[in-house]
Amino acid sequence: MGEVIVRTCCGRPRGAPGNESVLIEPAGRPPVLAVGRELDRFDASELAQPDPAVAAHEAGHAIVHMALGGIAAGLRMRPNPIFQPADHLEGDAEIVELLAGRVAQAWFTRWQADLHPDGLVENIARVHQTIGGWCDECRALRNLIARHRAKGDDFIRNEYRRLEAITNTIVRRPDIWRAIRQTADEIMVDGTLDGRRVHQIADVHLDSEARASIRRLMEGN
After folding, report:
1. How far is CA 122 from the centre of its chain?
2. In this structure, which long-range contacts are made by residues 115-118, counting pairs with CB atoms below 8 Å and at least 24 apart in sequence?
3. CATH number at residue 72
4. Which among 63, 57, 59, 99 has a CA at the least distance from the CA of 214?
5. Is 85 helix (H, G, I), strand (E, B) or coil?
6. What total of structural domains would you count in the chain?
7. Is residue 138 part of a domain?
8. 217 close to 172: Cβ distance less than 8 angstroms
9. Distance separating alpha carbons of residues 219 and 221, to the nearest angstrom
10. Are residues 103 and 61 in contact, defined by beta-carbon separation less than 8 angstroms?
């Protein structure tokens, strides 16, 4: 028997590249278990060469995490790209850190980051209906739903867009962007970067006033 894959709202097993055509969208049904040889389609050699846009994605998580007061344990590009925090941000800070990866990757590839399209309504519904997912958006939406379920989906959608706009503003700061680019460039050299080095990069580009300015932005001041 092949590997059993639990169907999640973002459509991919943890640690595997996306292949949404393999697993059927739940569309209001309970989560689906796909049994078979689906993972055979994922060729590890395709992931052998790090992608600089993905490096920017993980660097975005790391630098914004530290700008919001968090501690980085390190980053790696192999066997799967991941930012490893040494602590956990709470509330809105966690969501901004989660969204920072996608925004940084968009800025790296297109020099623009569009705010979330109208499909957010559908995505919120999927998170309600399934057992979850490991993508950044799923985790951000679960955070909002857990804290604000009683206020309804319109409130959750507006909060997501508000926090996405804040994330866009933070990532576009010249000091933050310089730190992200340097972190991404260095992780491309050998595929890993320890937390000490990530903090050194952040300290070069982010002084105390920069960090205070970001805190004020998060607090709505």
Report:
1. 19
2. 115/161, 115/164, 115/165, 115/168, 116/160, 116/161, 116/164
3. 1.20.58
4. 63
5. strand
6. 1
7. yes
8. no
9. 6
10. no
Decide if 87 is inside a domain.
Answer: yes
Secondary structure class of 7 (helix, strand, coil): coil
Q: What is the pLDDT along the chain (221 residues), one digit of tens a residue?
A: 444 444 445 554 444 444 333 333 333 333 333 333 333 343 444 445 678 999 999 999 999 999 999 999 999 987 778 899 999 999 999 999 999 999 999 899 876 656 555 577 778 887 877 665 668 888 899 899 999 999 999 999 999 999 999 999 999 999 999 999 999 999 999 899 999 999 999 999 999 999 999 999 999 85
DSSP bridge pairs for 36: none
Strands, E, within the chain: which ranges?
4-6, 33-35, 72-76, 82-85, 192-194
Nearest partner of 58 among 189, 187, 175, judged by Cα = 187
Domain that holds residue 97: 52-219
Rounded to 5 degrees, what are φ and ψ at 47? -100, 5
**Torsional class of 128: left (φ above 0), alpha (ψ -120 to 50), beta (otherwise):** alpha
Whether residue 177 is contained in a domain is answered as: yes
| Residue 4 resides in a domain | no
Name the one residue in this structure whose structure tokens are 């066997």. Answer: 79
pTM here is: 0.78
Q: Quick check: 33 and 154 in contact, CB under 8 A?
A: no
Residue 163 contacts residue 96 (beta carbons within 8 Å): yes
Give the whole-angstrom CA distance, residue 51 versus residue 182.
15
Q: Which residue has the tokens 């169907």?
A: 7
